[in-house]
Write a structure and sequence with these properties.
Layout lengths: L10 H4 L30 H10 L2 H5 L18 H19 L3 H10 L8 H11 L8 H12 L13 H7 L5 H10 L6 H5 L5 H25 L4 H4 L3 H13 L9 H31 L4 H6 L8 H19 L2 H23 L6 H7 L4 H13 L3 H12 L7
Helix pairs in contact: 2-5, 4-5, 4-11, 4-14, 5-8, 5-11, 6-17, 8-11, 11-14, 11-16, 13-14, 17-19, 17-20, 18-19
Pfam family, one: HD
InterPro entries: dGTPase (IPR006261), dGTPase-like (IPR050135), dNTPase_2 (IPR023023), HD/PDEase_dom (IPR003607), HD_domain (IPR006674), PHydrolase_assoc_dom (IPR026875)
Family: Belongs to the dGTPase family. Type 2 subfamily.
């Protein structure tokens, strides 16, 4: 069960929440934290969550975790950290327009990838394969595990002790099996909605969509910057082409070779803006029709934050294009195949000899039965940055892979 916030909200704690819609999440009405704690004198509970996330070790590690391109492939490609910051910026913009809680939205956005493995989705997929006999691996579950257990900062408890609403948003996907396990450990907690088929609060719904909007846009940008996809290819995608032509009509010089980078940026900027406005329009109309009285009513309704049907279809087309032409590009596949070997071999080595892990993890794994030991190994690997995983792999195997 959750511990309620230990003191009533003072005016200085909630002034930033004045003017929020009744269906927003209010920090002074939070369902509380796993461990009772007095409220801060100058920050709301959700502001405090955001600050804890930003100061966490897992958040700092995101700067050296792959989004699509590894660090050595270029200094200007997005990482998990820059992606998370972009998601938070988009989320705050929409939250303000919808009159829902900006601080909670930002906290969820900043934390949503804390459990991601090194080497992006390739690392996650292979770690899940390695863990098939030991309970599997889901990066959303791992993000929750990071903030609930793995971060070690406070003498009174493990984890960051975040509010229910922040943790609810971090766990945006969850299998039924894992939801049942969560419900056993935390009755009525963050796993329950997956068993009941309910939605999270609007802030969590928004963070999920902001993630999608951000990575579609910046992966297209990084893809062109890398040379793996071209501006001409993007101009064949209706969603992108519409805003590229708008930009060209206003600035004809953008078609000149020396201006093409600005053309890409301007088209992407306009596309992002229109997606944001579409979400605001469509979601506002849905809220007006549903008239939820509070956040509990929101949880009983179908998802309310989303695109219009037209924008959803166009965004899905862009996503399919990126999947086919960027994420499955031979150069990306070649790199991710090597990364998978690194993760798979690290897992096998650590499972066979847990003492090869850092002492903190080695001591945790000592004497555990195989399933529990494998979870410690997965925790250790999932927390690695790309470059640390490569150094560990070289130390343990003598092989150098994915070097610039």
């Amino acid at each position: 069960m959750h511990a309620p916030l230990m003191q009533p909200a003072e005016p200085q704690q909630i002034w930033t929440e004045l003017g929020l819609a009744p269906y927003a999440c209010f920090s002074h009405r939070s369902q509380g934290r796993l461990h009772a704690q007095e409220a801060a004198p100058t920050r709301s509970a959700f502001q405090r969550d955001r600050d804890r996330i930003v100061h966490s070790t897992a958040f700092r590690r995101l700067v050296y975790k792959t989004q699509v391109f590894l660090n050595h492939e270029g200094d200007l490609f997005r990482t998990r950290l820059t992606h998370s910051i972009e998601v938070a910026q988009l989320g705050r913009s929409v939250a303000r327009a919808l009159r829902i809680n900006e601080d909670l939205t930002e906290a969820i956005c900043l934390a949503h990838d804390l459990g991601h493995t090194p080497f992006g989705h390739a690392g996650q997929d292979v770690l899940n394969d390695c863990m098939q006999d030991f309970g599997g691996f889901e990066h959303n579950m791992q993000s929750l595990r990071v903030v609930d257990t793995l971060e070690e900062r406070y003498p009174d408890y493990s984890g960051l002790n975040l509010c229910f609403e922040t943790r609810e948003g971090i766990l945006k996907h969850c299998s039924a099996r894992h939801a049942r396990l969560l419900e056993q450990r935390e009755p009525g907690g963050v796993g329950q909605r997956f068993l009941l088929g309910r939605q999270p609060g609007l802030e969590a719904q928004l963070a999920n969509l902001a993630d999608e909007i951000a990575y579609n846009a910046h992966d297209a940008d990084d893809g062109v910057r890398s040379g793996l996809i071209s501006l001409e290819q993007l101009l064949e995608i209706p969603l992108f082409a519409r805003y590229a032509q708008q930009a060209l009509a206003e600035y004809p010089q953008l078609q000149e070779p020396q201006w093409r980078r600005k053309w890409l940026y301007e088209a992407t900027r306009r596309m992002l803006s229109e997606q944001i406005y579409d979400v605001i329009r469509h979601t506002s109309a849905g809220l007006q029709a549903a008239q939820p009285a509070d956040v509990d009513a929101v949880r009983q309704l179908p998802a309310l934050v989303g695109f219009s049907s037209t924008m959803a279809a166009e965004s899905a087309e862009l996503k399919r294009f990126l999947f086919k032409n960027l994420y499955r590009h031979p150069q990306v596949v070649r790199t991710t195949d090597q990364a998978k070997v690194v993760v798979r071999e690290l897992f096998a080595i650590y499972l066979a000899d847990p003492a090869q892990m850092k002492p903190r993890y080695a001591s945790r794994a000592a004497g555990l039965e195989p399933v529990a030991c494998a979870r410690v190994v997965a925790d250790f690997i999932a927390g690695m940055t790309d470059r640390y995983a490569l150094r560990e792999h070289e130390r343990l195997t003598g092989q150098r892979v994915l070097v610039p």
